[in-house]
Write a structure and sequence with these properties.
Blueprint (H helix, E strand, L loop, with lengths): L11 E8 L5 H14 L9 H19 L8 E8 L3 E8 L23 H8 L2 E7 L2 E9 L7
Antiparallel strand pairs: 1-2, 2-3, 3-5, 4-5
Helix pairs in contact: 1-2, 2-3
Length: about 150
Amino acid sequence: MPSKNSQNEPTCRFSLRLPLVLEYISTASILGRMFCESLGLNKGTPELGSSVELATSEACTNAVKHAGDGDLDAVFTVTYEIFPDKLVISVEDPGAGFDAVTIPEPDLEQHQEGGYGLFIIKRCMDVVTHSRSGKKSLLTMTKYLQSGEGE
């Protein structure tokens, strides 16, 4: 179990640096679910592990599909951080990024192909932000934990 710490410092952190290849998406997303379960973060919130797995899968899929421009050496990084009150997942890639404000929600009546990723991520997580720094795009997803989880 993670040790007690201040609200501003993660009690536990791990990162994966993976090639921008579709086959690695399940590695990152499944490890996120396992991380939640092994640390007991899903107590009282049994769907937390599944939500983390799905949001991470969607974020990594977007990174692989929209970043790298065919560069076989390109990588993306997934970082999981546990704080006393929240879980923060970051996906960093070499893509151009996007403006979340300009991306419309999908029309669920039209059953369009694609365009559901950010919509799904926002439904699974409590806070979703995107930023760009230099040649890196960073998607940060936050899920608040129920009292007692993450301590």
